[in-house]
Amino acid sequence: MTSSTKTTVIPFSFAGVPIRQDEQGRVSLTDEWKAAGSPKKKKPTDWFARESTQELVDMAKSLITPKMGQLELVVSTTGRYGGTYAYRTLALAYAKWLSPELHLAVNQVFFERQEEERNPDLILDRAEATYRRRGFTDGQIQARFLGKATRNRLTSTLAAHGVHKQGYRLCTNATYIPLWGGPASLIRQRKQLPEKANTREHMSEKELVGLHLAELLASESIEQKNVRGNQACAQECARAAQSVAQMIVQHQRG
């Protein structure tokens, strides 16, 4: 079946290639193929042409479909994220056919996700361990977790209030300028970061907490005033950031 689909990226990649999922949890076999080095005669279509694969799909349908309702086990998608997506059991089998290394890597990710579904705290533990490997302090890790939740709230608020396309960048820079004296691009230059680096991954604990407070105040203000549109929401972000910046300056002056 061919359809359009929204995708998310599994926090996992192999050989530098991110492995995506769609909203139903099906995994991109196209990404797996690319991660394995795009071997000839091993495309998803080649795999599905095998008699053994068809037997596997038929068995999966009889065992899985009754539990999953109307979920289609395999779909071919169009658009920006086009490709072949399949239920995780089939994705794991395809990975095994492609490469033993890829099979082991994908299997480990699926195992970890199952564990996380049973115990969501494992997600935080894994993220914390990753931040520690990058040299984050305890304070930075806590501020990063708090700031991520606030950022998600702000982006949801912006979307609900008519912000679109470049409006998100406009609101981000409207927050950064009062706090740090320039847009995200300037912050990257000052910190000598790559052009597309995530600035939040390179902020101090104080910078992260200040950003968290500014975005929290902006979210509340936009919701309470029912502000709408790119420019109007950016103005509220700037106003909130100015308040936080003034507080920081007053504290530093004693």
TrEMBL record:
Organism: Hymenobacter defluvii
SMART domains (alphabetical): KilA-N
Domain KilA-N intervals: 6-113
Transmembrane feature ranges: none
Domain of life the protein comes from: Bacteria
InterPro entries (alphabetical): KilA/APSES_HTH (IPR018004), KilA_N (IPR017880)
Official protein name in the record: KilA-N domain-containing protein
